[in-house]
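User: These chains co-purify. Model them together.
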Amino acid sequence: MGNFMFDGFGMGPTRRHFLEQIGRVAGTSMVMAGLNAFGISTASATDAPPALTGSGKGKRIIILGAGHAGQTSAYELSKLGYECVVLEARGFAGGRCQTARKGTKVQELGGEAQTCKFDEGQHLNFGPWRIPFHHRSTLHYTREFGVPLEVMVNDNDAAYLYHENVPGALANKPVRKLELLADMHGHTNEIVAKAAAGGRLDDQLGADDRALLLEYLVSEGYLSKSDLSYRGTEGRGFKVNPGAGLSPGAGIESEPYAFSDILKSQLWRALQSVGPYDQQRTMFQPVGGMDQIAMAFQKRVGRMTRYFAEVEKVRQSENGVEAFYVDTKTGQRASVKGDYCICAIPLSVVRGLDINFSRPFADAIGQVSYALVGKIGLQMKRRFWELDDHIYGGHIMTNFSDINQISLPSYGWQKEKGVLLGAYVFQATAAQLSGQTLAERLDTALAAGEKVFPGRYRASFDSGFSWFWHRAQYNLGGWAEWSPEGRKTAYPKLLEPDGRIYLAGEHLSHLTGWQAGAFESAWQQIEKLHHRASA
Amino acid sequence: MTVKKIGLGLLALAATILMAPAASAQDMYAGKVGFAKNCSACHQLTGLGIKGAFPALSGSPIAQGPEDVMISLVLQGRGGMPSFKGAIPEQTLADILTYVRGSWANHASEVSPEQIMSIKQALSEVDQRPKGN
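Assistant: Joint model of the two components:
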């Protein structure tokens, strides 16, 4: 074994090598300490449910809502012997974890009813659709339940970027991300390299560091070693792709875009040194749709769930909790009594319910906002993006104010048809798009896509599905949005029980809008509840 | 059509003109269109909202209250309502707010683009870019 600090790829130690070496010498605790020393938090991500001991036998927990937080609570608490009763307003479980496929029926609040007409085997995750590799709680359950995963292509260098109505030569045309990446890095590195070589960065760099920086800039940006210029690189693609024989033979190289055109186009807004924390590769999705996770839970907690049970009122006293609900199928009212209650309903809905929370707690609930979010799925008869454009998954990022982006499916490669995401919009844009009729929305989405894939987008269209979470009964929003003040004042209050009622859900996490937020919030709350109930 | 009927028609027209509100600086029709585009998904075209989900604007104390309160609310967003600061130009927003304040059961003052501009400038420049999950 050589010097463990320097046995990486000849470029100094990698973090992994360093930690592995520590681990061999000093064990896991040192690795964890090492990770923390590197500034990698090991405390924020939770890997597994709390290891709880003892028994909950003889105690009943009322769980409001069979979304992931409710499902998790029921699953984990029932393992300890608690009797769990889950009240779910809908006829199915999973909350926002839903997938549209053939026959899916939805009704918007104050809007139109839809029945999804996608072909057998086609689907759209209109709720959560991505599982980042570090959402260990989500991956804990997919592993435990054996929900098969596939890679969700969340970043595709071959995908297009498209900006309309911008100055310069790159306006109103699809540009592949790899062209832009290569040219933006190349041009930028050239400027910095020439400045460094000309001594203009000497007040910031010693001679040794300057030499190393130059090496980096040349290698990272594919600059000419002789004059530090960028003249393109094969990675940005060819005019004629190389192949066999003399023709195409070596192919014909492509020319870089002018730096000024790239800058003016603002297409660089889609580039970042590294993806935001929650958008990085490896990204996963369950095979067959995100709702496979909800269904896997339900196999285990379905017997505890009362469907079509819409909670109207909750009363808690020193001795217990009683939840009153109406069966929306029969109109009959009933109630269930328990020792404790886990309220796993979105706060956007909770604030409209008659629950005898304490005044400060109710006020805190009122402080959170909910995101307006919506998606449109379009089933295409022909996978033109794969066949004609050679793009397999990923996102077409645009500056279109009405649809934001087009996302290509990461399932069913090379099959005949496919469902792409034709719009993914938020806030004011979501308010506007959701104000259109279903037919208008589809037309908006098709008109936008037609700009990027002219002659093919509209012509390939089969059927569409659209859903807006702010117009969803029992959701009233996509996810919780906390203001910095709310995080300081209301959030900590809501993490503690109010009497015998515990809240749980993505809204009580810093992973708002992510399934992991719901799982990990439930884990925290059931641990508190169990300790109290065991005391 | 008889002369009598034409006469009645003219009378009705005159009555409509006379009963219209005093010359308005904001465009009620543009306001109605802007409302349909930006607000109706939740508050509904009737202005009645949906009980338990989206507040009614018709008869609402806020929609008929001080202009600056209503303007700030729409610019900044609250609860389930997004910020419309960057989404609607001042003149259009003035038309929409004036329409809301003067429609259905509401009888409140107009809102001007200048009022909106001055409140916009007072708001912090921090504009959160919406983020998808």
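Chain B touches chain A through 26 residues (CB under 8 Å).
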